[in-house]
Amino acid sequence: MPTKKKTTTVKKTTAAAPVKRTRTTSRKVKPQEEMFVEEVVMTETAQSKNSLFAFNKKKTIRLVIGIFVVGVILYLIRSWFIVAIVNGRPIWRYSFDRQLEQQGGKQVLSNLETKMLIQQEADRRHITVSDKELADSQKQIEQSLASQNQTLSAALTARGMSMSDFRDQLYLQKLIEKLLGSQIAVSDTEINDFLAQNKDFLPQGMSDADASSSAREQLMQQKVQTVFPTYLAGLQKNAKIIDFVSF
What we know:
The protein has helices at 31-76, 93-124, 131-146, 152-158, 163-180, 188-197, 208-238, and strands spanning 82-86, 89-92. The chain is mainly α.
């Protein structure tokens, strides 16, 4: 009989892979490296302090400059708040203005309202005064004053008026004359009568033309003073005026 061979199965075992171990090593910092790190930290700290100091310095300089500028501005506009100082104590503008209002406020307000009524009526009637008319009227006044050895600037100074105030008054006067029109017309007969009655009061050396022109102007102003109050009363009656202040 044939002999059966035994088959032997050999199981292979797989060996486990070796585990790698990570070794953590701590390196000691050398003294030279420690000194370098300390120097870097100290440098950064110093730079931070210098930056902060520079920022504070700039901020302080700006603050000082700002205070100086504000002080200069307040000094320049001091009259807006203080009108006088008496023995170190200020007189405030509010008190000054209030006293001024109580003394002359009513008259000032009345003048402003009158001026506005005249301008509104002139606008309604399309009446204007040209620059040439104002210049001619001013020249006539200057010539009249010159014949009396006076100047316009000296006359204005004596009355406490500025040139701007004078021109405003002159403009208003010419508007009134145009508004009144024929009511204040002056005839040649009236001029001759006026010159005959006042020949002793006329300035010496004045020409006949200047004398007639001066007489016409004076007679016209006399009529304005007579007629204008009634005319103004009519404007005020037809106007709607509301005052928000009382004196």
